[in-house]
Amino acid sequence: MANKKWLKRKSLTKKTEAALADFSPLKRQLLFSRGIESAVEAGKYLNPSYDRDLNDPFLMMDIETAARRIIDAIYRKEKIIIFGDYDADGIPGALVIESFLKRIGYNDFAVYIPDRHLEAHGLTIKAVETFVKEKAGLIITVDCGITNIEAVDKANELGLDVIITDHHLTQVKIPQALAVVDAKREDDKYPFKMLSGCAVAFKLVQVILGIERFNIPEGWEKWLLDLVAISTISDMVPLEGENRVLAHFGLKVLKKTRRLGLQTLLGMLKIRPAYVSEDDIGFMIGPHLNSAGRMSQASQAYYLLRTDDEIEAVTIAKHLVEKNKERRTLVDFILKETESLLVNKKLSPVLVIGNPRWGLGVLGLAANRLLEKYERPVFLWSRNSNGEIKGSCRSDGTVDLVELMNKAGGKKYFKAFGGHAVAAGYSLVEGKEKELEKKLNDAYKKIKIQKVKTDIEIDAELTLDDITWQTYDEVEVFGPFGVGNPKPVFLLKGVLLDSVKTFGNGGIHLELGFKNRQDGQISAIGFFTCPPTLVKEEFDSKKGHYFEGVNLTPGERLDILVNLEKSFFKIKPELRLRLVDIKRAG
């Protein structure tokens, strides 16, 4: 904070002003900020339609072949393996397909969620050989498989059909599976490329039901959208186009979810189902589901989502809450160790750090935090109990991680790698990690570096008197918010600071207090704004809070950038501000 350039978005043209005349000035500006310049576009954006706004799933390459093979397996009574990834995208996606099979009364299937600590990402030869011994006839991958060429070749050799459903980036070759359903295939003409892995599985179920209803009532599949919303928001795919529509309706289903495990977890997290939001998924539900795979067994999250047993639901939910606490502690430990290693060290363009003692499951989270501070690609690694080096990497968008690893040696150097342009994973034979930093930094010199905007764009200027429920209602309809559809950013200039305090875990969160002209109290919250390991800040309740050169002593005047949000932490809903950045007034 306090070191980024603040840019006000362009004002409306007269033409757009006239076209959007039926909307309030604030809505007009927010629509224009999102590239919407006609009343028709605005109507569609502000009033999503399930039937109108979702693309025909039959347009996706190989999806009809996949659907017909699954229908054939059902009628032939073959054993089906649902192979899901171990995170809050792959696990809900596996549940989508399982829910369909259970709904039609088909029970000859098994769900396999790999152990992220001991197994490579995606389908493996060892897993295929196990499924053959179990006399399976068909494997369906969910949120993985697009890079698992050797495993699919082995399945073909052993007479086992494979359907891949994935959303990760393809590499030079794609597996020779019976069907490869991934909109990121170069030869796929599907109009929207950024679906989550779970959403791809949902599309597959839509196509199956489009071919054969199995006596399932029309519209039943919409009850699966709570899982799609969790995956879409947790996996941070852009909340644009279809994703925003799926998240919008998925949140409506989540508020009424019939899943006992989810209801139990929400209760433990003090989230009232009727008010569940995208923030609750992104900051609470998703991390707790992911903590299973990061800190113990991902299958625990799967069992929670599928259970109908109250005792099992409570036991697993308690386990996930505890593991999530451990996860935070472990991330802090890695960050402290990393900071000590980087003191007075000249930083390379690609930051590469590892330790065999670090927990594999939290490397991605720690890499994210280091990326935020050092603003360069980060590769972290550790070692599993099999002696294999495994790691996670994150990019700020300046480089494509998959391209970088290809240039650094690809399959000749990495045992396995894959993922997205800005978030990926990899594994190495032990010993090769010693040359990882050199290989990546040499490769960095050979690839195109993209420019990434770090400026903060301001949607509109408000006053403290504008912070009302009416204003919030105007903003809320632009959600769900997330990557690709960020919360509107508002500027409040020269506001008088009334109070300041830190809270939570020794003071890592910041709360500023202001008063409007009616003497009404307005609070502004900055979560994880004061992490002692990453930001040089000091807080003293008498002298004030000095935040990167900004004096946060009561009586000071500030310029602040904020989002509007509704908090349900207290008994009654509270309208408050979420801090985006702070500067001295003027």
Number of helical runs?
19
Q: Output the radius of gyration.
A: 25 Å
Q: Globular, elongated, flat, extended or rod-shaped: what is the shape?
A: globular
Structural category is alpha/beta
CATH class of the largest domain: Alpha Beta
Number of DSSP strand runs: 22
Oligomer: single chain
> Which residues form runs of ≥5 with pLDDT under 50?
532-538
Describe this structure in words.
The protein has 4 domains: 57-254, inorganic pyrophosphatase (n-terminal core) (Alpha-Beta Complex); 256-323, no CATH class; 346-444, Diaminopimelate Epimerase, Chain A, domain 1 (Roll), CATH 3.10.310; 455-584, Beta Barrel (OB fold (Dihydrolipoamide Acetyltransferase, E2P)), CATH 2.40.50.460. With 586 residues, it is α/β, with parallel strands linked by helices. It contains 19 helices and 22 strands. Helix 10 (225-234) crosses helix 13. The chain has a 7-stranded mixed beta sheet with strand order 13-14-21-22-17-16-15. The longest helix has 33 residues, at 310-342. The model is unreliable at 532-538 (pLDDT under 50).
Topology readout:
Layout: E1 6-8, H1 14-19, H2 25-33, H3 39-46, H4 50-53, H5 63-76, E2 79-84, H6 90-103, E3 109-112, H7 125-133, E4 136-142, H8 149-157, E5 161-165, E6 179-181, H9 197-211, H10 225-234, H11 241-254, H12 260-268, H13 278-295, H14 299-306, H15 310-342, E7 351-354, H16 363-374, E8 378-383, E9 389-394, H17 401-407, E10 416-419, E11 423-428, H18 436-444, E12 456-458, E13 460-461, H19 469-476, E14 490-496, E15 499-503, E16 509-515, E17 521-526, E18 537-540, E19 544-547, E20 550-552, E21 557-567, E22 574-584
Parallel strand pairs: 1-12, 2-3, 2-4, 4-5, 5-6, 7-8, 13-14, 17-22
Antiparallel strand pairs: 8-9, 9-11, 10-11, 14-21, 15-16, 16-17, 18-19, 19-20, 21-22
Helix pairs in contact: 5-9, 6-9, 6-10, 6-14, 7-8, 9-10, 10-11, 10-13, 12-15, 13-14, 13-15, 14-15, 15-16
